[in-house]
Structure formats: structure tokens, C-alpha cells
Amino acid sequence: MSDSHKTGPLKIAVAGLGTVGAGVLKLLERQADLIEQRCGRRIEVVAVSARSRGKDRGVDLSTAEWYDDPVALAAHPGVDVVVELIGGSEGPAKETVELALERGRHVVTANKALLAHHGTALAAKAEAAGLAIGFEAAVAGGIPIIKGLREGLAGNRVSEVHGILNGTCNYILTEMRTTGRDFADVLADAQKLGYAEADPSFDIDGVDAAHKLAILTSVAFGTPVDFKSVHVEGIRHVSAVDFDYADALGYRIKLLGIARRTDHGIEQRVHPCMVPKAAPIAAVDGVFNAVIAQGDFVDRVLFVGRGAGEGPTASAVVADLIDIARGRSTPTFGVPAAQLSEAQPSPMEARRGSYYVRLMVVDRPGVIADVAAAMRDQNVSMEQFLQRGRAPGEAVPVVLTTHDTEEAAMQRALATIADKESVVEPPRMIRIEQF
Ligand SMILES: NC(=O)C1=CN([C@@H]2O[C@H](COP(=O)(O)OP(=O)(O)OC[C@H]3O[C@@H](n4cnc5c(N)ncnc54)[C@H](O)[C@@H]3O)[C@@H](O)[C@H]2O)C=CC1
Ligand SMILES: N[C@@H](CC=O)C(=O)O
Ligand code: NA
């Protein structure tokens, strides 16, 4: 980085003044003295851009130059850092970041979609110009997981990183379980609280968690960001009855992102999981995120904190700005972009573990025997079987769990079961992870 010698203020331009942008400006205003003490210089906002100029954001913008166009803001003269808080993998966010790098400005961004799709190319561009891209806010909000992995665990080979990476989903799953509230109602709450993405289907369909996982995988394993290899499932099919069965079986339901080095290559997957109630991650509720990393010297490390919202996300953005103001320098993903080593993705079919399956079946003799036969034919061993109550001739939920088996065999058994005339809804499956 080129700013270590400077003693004047670090001049920044902020593109995007929504939940995160307004939070950053508030933090910079309120903690100005503390920041100056910690990095020996002030951080000065010289230009801003957003869609609506007149909106009251609870911060003083009178000394910053206003830009309607965030891309033009990236070229504002005399700026050291462009802070991109617009969002989206393409369009103005990408153009702003690219122009900022071309003009020799460092970049700080909270935009995981952008980095999941273009992270390696942007890192290469930044590093070739001796510039930094700070993205602590892009993964797990306020948790310093990027610095934790990249700097704190730099002496380790990491074999696995997994965690709760989406605050909106964890908030929805927690509220549904503890209050019995409706999915849509809780999602509306998460949107009001500023947790959700502009398009909340990115949250509930697991895409946002997959963006974050792809970034984490790169930092953990020194590989190029490979979003397209992430297996992604969201939480739309988790229903109230699953929470009851999970509870009875000794589990909690969490949307997890899991990245592992396996014999088949690097596994990256995001999907709902049942985790034992005693696992530390099971107790991480609401908007809190958690990330667990396994390093060869440090062993297991658990990071927990708020994964979304104005304050925690602003905290991460400003930490990156302070790094730049101090002149600290680290390759974007921990290894110089040109040296990130390609790795084979491990296919989802190779996952080995146990499964929870919920079926809606017509309550009549022989149905369960058919289900058991489909499992037997694929060599899938059942562990538990639950049917609560009886309703002869009507559809009832039945639940089973399996012993460890291969995903490919499980998928074949489920396809056979789904075809049975007595199975009246698509089978719902949740993978069980024993951490
Ligand atoms: N809200 C959260 O808790 C977190 C958000 N993020 C990320 O931070 C970024 C910003 O998120 P939020 O603040 O929640 O979004 P937001 O929707 O509240 O704010 C977006 C801002 O960008 C501006 N904007 C959008 N399109 C524009 C355009 N074409 N030209 C100029 N300005 C434009 C809007 O006017 C608004 O000020 C996204 O990348 C998001 O994924 C990351 C971590 C947590
Ligand atoms: N929509 C995201 C915001 C933070 O990244 C989430 O809910 O986690
Ligand atoms: Na973070």
C-alpha cells in the first residue's frame, strides 16, 4: 500500500448511503477522535453518492461533494479510497470499483456478490497496481473473519471452514422455532431491520451465504474464488413441523456454509443442516453468525458475532479503512492473486453423512415397507423412524433418519420414494452434520 508515509487525512469517497453506508458515516463521525488516535490521521469523507439526495440519513453530508453517478465519484480528484456500498455483482458497483482501481484508489467494499463473481480478477488488478481491496464487511458482517483467517491463522493449513453465514436466514429460523411465527412475517421484520439483501431471495435461497462461502474458501485454502462450484439450497422448504421433529431428535436447524478439503477435492456447499443441540453453533441464534475454522496448529477456532445490520457492518468497513490509513498491506485473499492455486471441486454426490427425511404419506398398511425397501435397495441404513398419531386413509407426516451414507445413494432412494403413489408431497430432506 502506498499511504503508510502519509500524515494528512485519508480521503475517502463513499458510494451507497443505505443501511451500511449511513452506518459507516455515523461511525466515522462519532469515533473520529478514537480513529485518529489509532491510526495517527483522520479519515475524511470528501465525496458521496446515492440514489436520493434529499433523504435524511441522520448524518451531516454538507462537507462532502455529492455525485448522482457513483462511477463519476470513483474519479473524484484527491481521493485515496473508494468505499463501494451499493451492492450487486454487475452494473454500477462493478464499474465503480474497476474505475477506482484504474485511477489508483484503494477500494473497501461490503459487496460479497461482486467478489464471489469477480474477486480473483479484481484482486489481480488491485495487486498489480499496489492497491488494497478491503472486504471484511462482505463476510459475516461484524465478525473479523477475513482478518481472523488471513492474518490471525496465517501460520496454519486450514482443512475446513464452516458456519452460519446469513443473518436473515438465522433470524428467520430462530423466530420460526421459538415463536412459531410465519416465514413471510419474520422475513418482513428482517427487511425492516436492514438485514436482508435488496433482493431477499438471495438470502432465503442460500445465494448470499454461497457468495460468502466462496470468498471464505479462497481465503482459507489459497484457491481462486469459485462461486459456480458451490452447491446451494435455501430455507424455503423448512417447515414448522421440521423444527418439532428436529427438537425431538436432539437437533437444531441451521443454514450452514461448509468448505472442506476432501479426497475428491474442495467441497463447498450451502444448505439447511440439522446440528446436535450441544454443538456450539446450535446456540448461535437470531442475526448472529458463527464461523468455525480448523487449522493444523491452532486446532478449532470459533468466531461469533452479528452478521448483518448497520452497526456491525459499519464496524467491519471502518476496520478496513483504518488498515489502509495505517499503511498495512496483505494480499487480498492471503496469497498474491497470481499464485492462488486452482483446485478440483468435490461433487455434492460424494458427500458422506446422515440424513433426516420427512414424507407426507397416505396412512395405510404397506406404505412404510415400500419406503424401507427403496432405502434398502440403495444400501441406505435407517436409524430412526417416527410417525406421530394415526389418520387411516389420510396423509400424515412420517420422519426417518439414516446412518451415514453417500449422497448419491440417498438421492436415488428419494427419487424412488417420490414416485410412489402413496407419497403425496415431494420428500423433504435435511442433512445432519455432527460437528
Ligand atoms: N445490510 C447489511 O446488513 C449488510 C449489507 N452488506 C452489503 O453491503 C452493500 C450495501 O447494502 P445495504 O446498505 O444493506 O443496501 P441498501 O439498499 O440499504 O443501500 C444501497 C445504497 O446504494 C445506493 N444505490 C443503489 N443503486 C445505485 C446507483 N445506481 N447509483 C447510486 N447509488 C445507488 C442506494 O441509493 C443506497 O443508498 C451490499 O453489497 C450488501 O450486500 C454486507 C453486509 C451486511
Ligand atoms: N443479507 C445479509 C447481510 C449481510 O451480509 C445477511 O442477512 O446476512
Ligand atoms: Na466480517
UniProtKB/TrEMBL annotation:
The active site is at residue 212. It is an enzyme of class 1 (oxidoreductase). It comes from the Bacteria. The keyword Iron does not apply. InterPro entries: ACT-like_dom_sf (IPR045865), ACT_dom (IPR002912), Asp/hSer_DH_NAD-bd (IPR005106), HDH (IPR016204), HDH_cat (IPR001342), HDH_CS (IPR019811), NAD(P)-bd_dom_sf (IPR036291). Coiled coil: none annotated. NADPH binds at residue 112. Residues 356-431 form the ACT domain. Its EC number is 1.1.1.3. GO terms for molecular function: homoserine dehydrogenase activity; NADP binding. PROSITE patterns: ACT, HOMOSER_DHGENASE. Pathway: Amino-acid biosynthesis; L-methionine biosynthesis via de novo pathway; L-homoserine from L-aspartate: step 3/3; Amino-acid biosynthesis; L-threonine biosynthesis; L-threonine from L-aspartate: step 3/5. Keywords: Amino-acid biosynthesis, Methionine biosynthesis, NADP, Oxidoreductase, Threonine biosynthesis. It holds the Pfam family Homoserine_dh. GO terms for biological process: methionine biosynthetic process; threonine biosynthetic process. NADP(+) binds at residues 15-22. The keyword Repeat does not apply. L-homoserine binds at residue 197. Belongs to the homoserine dehydrogenase family. This is Homoserine dehydrogenase. It comes from Azospirillum brasilense.
